[in-house]
Design a protein that fits this description.
Elements: E1 2-7, E2 10-13, E3 18-26, E4 33-39, E5 46-51, E6 58-60, E7 68-73, E8 78-83, E9 92-99, E10 115-116, E11 120-125
Parallel strand pairs: 2-11
Antiparallel strand pairs: 1-3, 3-8, 4-5, 4-9, 5-6, 7-8, 9-10, 9-11
């Protein structure tokens, strides 16, 4: 029904930047709120950022505020995560996810997202 493919991960030194991208196909892209999550080895999948269907509202976990920016381009069916001033603790597999339910606020629980990409590895060295 919906396919999500992440790209842009890699190895970067602390203080550097990466831009992740998620390409969507299937159901109309603008019908979904989109989120980014990350998961480190042995840890639970954790919320990073989310954006509403229209892109008019965003939300970030406290640890990335001021450093990460989520954006979407509904004409291109993509959502991005610009990551600046990266820290070693940002190291994780990053996942793009789609929420098909129209909610008054963006969802931060991974259990509320229906579709997931395969993930892309981000490694930040000291």
């Amino acid at each position: 029904q919906v396919q999500l493919v992440e790209s842009g991960g890699g190895l970067v030194q602390a203080g550097g930047s990466l831009r992740l991208s998620c390409a969507a196909s299937g159901r109309t892209f603008s019908s979904y709120a989109m989120g980014w999550f990350r998961q480190a080895p042995g840890k639970e999948r954790a919320f990073v950022a989310a954006i509403t269907q229209s892109g008019d509202s965003t939300y970030y976990t406290d640890s990335v505020k001021g450093r990460f920016t989520i954006a979407r381009d509904n004409a291109k069916n993509t959502v991005s995560l610009q990551m600046n001033s990266l820290k070693p603790e940002d190291t994780a597999v990053y996942y793009c996810a789609a929420d098909f339910v129209h909610r008054p606020r963006v969802a931060v629980s991974p259990h509320l997202y229906t579709y997931w990409g395969q993930g892309t590895q981000v490694t930040v060295s000291s």
